[in-house]
Amino acid sequence: MARADCPICQGSGWKVVERCAEGAQALAAAEAARAGAAAGEPKMVWAVPCDCTAGNKAERVLAKARVPERYRHCDFENFETDNEYGEVSPPRVKGWNQSLTQAKIAVQGFVREFPLSTEHGFLLMGPCGVGKTHLAVAALKEIVGRGHSGLFYEYQRLLKEIQDSYNAASQSTEMGVLEPVLKAEILVLDDVGSSKPSPWVVETVGHILNSRYNDKRFTLITTNYVDPEFKKLTDYASPKDFSTPVRDSSADARSTHVVKLPSGEMIAVKQEETFEDRVGRRIRSRLYEMCRTVEMSAPDYRKEIRDAGRFRA
Length: 313
Prior knowledge:
By secondary structure, the protein is of the alpha/beta class. It is 35% helix and 15% strand. It folds into 2 domains: 14-54, no CATH class; 65-231 and 272-307, Rossmann fold.
């Protein structure tokens, strides 16, 4: 949107520039030339976007890519990797921050090599609040800013839009929803696994991933669910979150996972669903093939800053 007080375009959003190239429109007389132009030969001019609209170009690009307003500030510069976590031992904090740093470096490398990267998929995996969506949006912003086509979709939102297209009263069609998703050079699919893997979900998501993989298009995925080998709960959990040791074979006991704290104490935590539980074996297998997995291990920093009374954008 143009500035209303712009001295160049007077709020129109366009400015006139003189060009001596084929295709420019000649003004009929010198009197018709813009203010300040020298009298003499008729001017060859073009109307081009005024400089005052340049700041809105990035916003238009992000809106076209469907990046939610709340994430548009996210970039690599403001992704924090030196966080503090209250009363936690320095070695543990160092490990968490190293995990965030490594994830940032990996995603930046992917962006730097795009579209020549050999990785046609990227999976950011870890608990809530570690910055997975932040890094995904930062990558998307840089890539679409270079002129590539990109799209952001929250997993549940995409599935709902596809389902809504089946309604006879809907103005959209399934292909109308899917085509941009299948064709975008880079797709960010956020919070994968937030919906249960019904047969329809498995078929639909499998079609999207297979199509993009076969067409060598890039897909960047985030998920709050992790693989069994990544369930090192002592990496980001606090002892106060743990239950007492398990000493029986009841159903409740069988649904828990016993871990050993650095102190040597054996404690039990409730067994959570894995990423494969949430997306199905077939999709997880496909993602092993098409994605590089980056595991982010740290506490929920949004909760940390809220509990400490500190806030960030």
